[in-house]
TrEMBL record:
PROSITE patterns found in the cross-reference section: CN_HYDROLASE (PS50263)
Species classification: Bacteria, Pseudomonadati, Pseudomonadota, Alphaproteobacteria, Hyphomicrobiales
Protein's recorded name: Nitrilase/cyanide hydratase and apolipoprotein N-acyltransferase
Keyword terms of this UniProt record: Acyltransferase, Hydrolase, Lipoprotein, Plasmid, Transferase
InterPro entries: Aliph_Amidase/BUP (IPR050345), C-N_Hydrolase (IPR003010), C-N_Hydrolase_sf (IPR036526)
Top-level taxon: Bacteria
Any one Pfam family match given in the protein's UniProt record, by short name: CN_hydrolase
Domain CN hydrolase: 1-263
One example GO MF annotation: acyltransferase activity
Organism: Methylobacterium aquaticum
Keyword S-adenosyl-L-methionine attached: no
Length: 268
């Protein structure tokens, strides 16, 4: 079973640029035989946590809005499941959630996670993620994803900062074979290699595969640089990195999962 992490970025004033990257990456992943592809946090939006939230309400959409519909159509067209990030608006709520949705290969959509822990403002910033989003539930929902040619995995999601916490991994991995990690934003405190080591350590401890898709590059669209520090990689349940992004040539990261990843019993 092949899976893909699709990096995109950096975001700018033209959202169509990110969409072109998404569509090209998903097409390449499907052509390489991937049955599941992961996209970054807030996939086609810039990282605006430090900005005035009053200016950034408009990108939030319902679960059946234009971004979700387009992602569902993309999954259906390419015949693979797709996990993507969305600023998810919900009736009666003032703030959206920073959510991860899964589009199955038939185009159907389901929310699998929403960011539960919202990091504080970065040094020098007036605003942080809690000014833009409300927390999601602590629980992560695992959804079974079928792969071309047979076989399936139960997939759960973690959105960016939640990956820092052992409890979040314990909750997600309890019902899953694979944890999708959607990442964007700066982590200037991390030394080189920390992200991959962190992901590999949690995957090995929890005995799940992990696929991280991160925004890459430095964004300048907000009048100041925002550097993305995450990696895109595929990790097996033994903690071994099966595939990782080449920084000099951003492209879908595709890995073949070992048979040992299939830890859950088949659906009855």
């Amino acid at each position: 079973m092949r899976v893909a992490a699709i990096p995109v970025g950096p975001a700018g004033h033209d959202p169509h640029r990110l969409w072109r990257q998404v569509e090209a990456g998903v097409s390449a992943a499907a052509a390489a035989g991937a049955g599941l592809a992961i996209l970054p946090e807030l996939t086609v939006l810039p990282y605006v946590a430090g900005e005035d939230p009053a200016r950034w309400r408009h990108p939030a959409e319902p679960s059946d809005g234009p971004t979700a519909r387009r992602m569902g159509a993309l999954a259906r067209h390419n015949g693979l499941a797709l996990v993507f990030g969305l600023a998810l608006s919900e009736p009666g709520e003032n703030l959206p959630r920073n959510a991860a949705l899964l589009a199955q290969a038939d185009g159907s959509l389901i929310q699998i996670a929403a960011k539960h822990r919202l990091p504080p403002p970065l040094p020098g910033d007036r605003f942080g993620e809690a000014d833009h989003f409300r927390p999601g539930p602590a629980e992560a929902q695992a959804v079974r994803v079928g792969f071309p040619g047979g076989g399936s995995l139960r997939v759960a999601g973690l959105v960016c900062y939640d990956r820092r916490f052992r409890q979040a991994w314990d909750t997600a991995s309890a019902g899953a074979d694979l944890v999708a990690v959607l990442v964007a934003g700066p982590a200037p405190q991390d030394p080189p290699g920390f992200f991959a080591a962190e992901l590999a350590g949690h995957a090995r401890r929890c005995r799940v595969a992990a696929v991280a898709a991160s925004r890459y590059g430095t964004e300048h669209g907000l009048g100041r640089p925002v550097r993305h520090d995450g990696d895109s990689l595929v990790v097996g349940p033994d903690g071994c990195v099966l595939a990782a992004l080449r920084p000099d040539a951003p492209a879908p990261v595709i890995g073949s999962l070992p048979d040992s990843v299939r830890l859950s019993p088949p659906a009855t």
